[in-house]
Amino acid sequence: MIPDPAPRVVAHLVDRTTGGVPVAVRSYIRTSPPAYRHVIVSPPVAGGPAPVWAGGDAAHVAWDASTPVRALRDLRGILRRGRFDVVHAHSSFPGVYARLLRPARTRVVYTPHCFAFARTDVSFVHRSVYRVIERTLAGRTTVLAACGPGERDEALGVGIAAHRALVIPNLPSLVDVHARPPRALRDGVLRLGMLGRWSPQKDPGFFVDRVASLRHALADVDVRATWIGDGSAAPGIRVTGWVGAGCVRRELDELDVYLHTAAWEGFPIAILDADAAGLPILARRIPALPDLPAALTLDEGEAALVAAVRERRFVAWSAENRRGWRAYLGHRDAHTQGDALARAWG
């Protein structure tokens, strides 16, 4: 009897312990085919793996990623000592480090989780430098594993060959969530919300402006707004602070409409969480959401929402919005993500 081949070892390079990137990596490990074993190379917290990695089926290696020089030096030693078949770099800086070091006979997979040149909070010069770096390193990338079709398009634009670029569809971070049916407004209150860190990427100022616009258009309606995540206080906005998955689920269930206001993304897991919870969604038009139908955008969908609230057609509007998002997001589950990961890891 021929024994099964040894599992291929995938080293995940993750230079942060909060935010959407670790959440996505946890999903990759959870949906991984059994032919792979995982090692998370990431900064420690209090001398051990960060809380975000708790419960995952992976080994851990501490990585000093505090500065680029230290990150490169420490990672060089880690890659020399480890026996990795695949190095999967998550986000821009690990993507640079992995491709500069590029161990021999190792498959280098890179998921930007939003390219640095897509940021709008840095100067044109900075964005241009980031783009040049990506273009320079494109040839050292075995596979560009984009987290969405918009990110794949951007990868092709910096010189990644089409046959080396694929999409690993993101999944909701909330598990065992059942989408609720469309429901009417409760007590005449319209409850709006956004999920994420209070940071330039998520653009809380844009959220505040859209809430103000809806309050102006619906002057006779009690419009309440919640920012689900850590952040600063803002007039007229309830900010929950950091909350765990169970609280996120409950906060989403309290909302009537989810507004996604991020200025740049790879592919927003928060939208997938809101969709999984059964919420109607209006999203900002950004490259991460290519070809998003106008009715689902904040710019063009807000008027239909206002009309639906005024004319007491909110349930019908919600159902139509949900059908639009189901069609746009398409089918995605553990099997589709696992199959895409197997293609990326080889």
TrEMBL record:
At the top level of its lineage, which domain of life is listed? Bacteria
Annotated Glycosyltransferase subfamily 4-like N-terminal domain ranges read: 19-170
This protein's name: Glycosyltransferase subfamily 4-like N-terminal domain-containing protein
Gene3D superfamilies referenced in this protein's UniProt entry, alphabetically? Glycogen Phosphorylase B (3.40.50.2000)
Q: Which InterPro entries match?
A: Glyco_trans_4-like_N
Q: Per UniProt, what is one GO molecular function of this protein?
A: glycosyltransferase activity
Q: Which UniProt keywords apply?
A: Glycosyltransferase, Transferase
Organism, by scientific name, is Microbacterium testaceum
